[in-house]
TrEMBL record:
GO molecular function: DNA binding
Key words of the record: DNA integration, DNA recombination, DNA-binding
CDD domains given in the database record: INT_Rci_Hp1_C (cd00796)
SUPFAM superfamilies documented for this protein: DNA breaking-rejoining enzymes (SSF56349)
Domain Tyr recombinase: 154-322
Source organism (scientific name): Ferriphaselus amnicola
Pfam family, one: Phage_integrase
Domain Core-binding (CB): 57-134
InterPro entries cross-referenced by the UniProt entry: CB (IPR044068), DNA_brk_join_enz (IPR011010), Integrase-like_cat_sf (IPR013762), Integrase_catalytic (IPR002104), Integrase_recombinase_N (IPR010998), Tyrosine_recombinase_XerCD (IPR050090)
Name of the featured protein: Tyrosine recombinase XerC
GO biological process, one term: DNA recombination
Phylogenetic lineage: Bacteria, Pseudomonadati, Pseudomonadota, Betaproteobacteria, Nitrosomonadales
Family label: Belongs to the 'phage' integrase family.
Amino acid sequence: MSLTKRGSIWWIIFTSPSGDRIRCSSGTTEKAKAQELHDQMKAEAWRVIRLGEKPSYTWDEAGVKFLLETQHKASHRDDKAKLGWLQQFLRNKPLQEIDRELIAKIAQRKVAEASTSTANRYLALIRTILRKACHEWEWIDKVPKIRAYPEPKRRIRWLPPEQVAVLMKELPEHLRDVVVFSLSTGLRQGNVLKLEWSQVDLDLKLAWIHADQAKARKAISVPLNSTAMGALLRQAGKHPVRVFTYCGKPLVTANSRAWRKALERSGITDFRWHDLRHTWASWLAQSGVPMNVLQELGGWASYEMVRKYAHLSPAQLGVHAEKVSERFSDTILAQSTK
């Protein structure tokens, strides 16, 4: 029997030319559609075995394989969410049928809903999966060209110390030390809020972020300056596990209504919680900290990611530029004036 019914769903059963027993759900309650799918699968199985054609894989299969292979990625949850949204366009779509025109329509829909930057993130995911399907899994022979939208370069948003002082006065007590610690270490919000006492050594003045907690999947060693130490000592004894709490419970989010209201009362606009990290990096750059040291402190994966702060340290660059002047002798200068 090639079709059998389980509950209201028709199941497909047949033996391929290689002798393999195929048994799978058709996903439909309509027998005619189930029969059509059965015939397609049986014909494809014959072409694969007898004619040596590549089997036809769907976007769903590629998405599942991609998620299984990338469970270690920090962006795994975001990738799952993106794939969920893409299903409305690509569900059960054979990979060979995903072309530039279809991808362009998907991008246009996302631009209408969000922005070109957001659409580019979805385009990048589609490109990555199709490239894996082609070059690693050998499921398809070629990948359609996918052109991203041009994106304006985002400026670095940071606060001078004077504005931070104003903000501190407006913050509720439970957020002050979270902000102080963030500005003192440059850690991301998730790493600060999930920090446990087991990750802190007050004697050595050191904290650490485990590799599986870091965005770059590389452990980060966090030297604790006197300001960071003060924030930690004020939290000591409030909770047996987590460092930062509110009413005896670990903080879940810092980007709260209280945070936004404090910004509003401070007259600070266009400022996100992540901009505290930008402020930390900007202060260090302005103080002459070399970019390679800043990269190490911030746990950035590449030097390119930290170069955006280089323009904030002109004074330090001037010190190095002056080294050339030291090479000029009085004789050279005298000749230049003749």
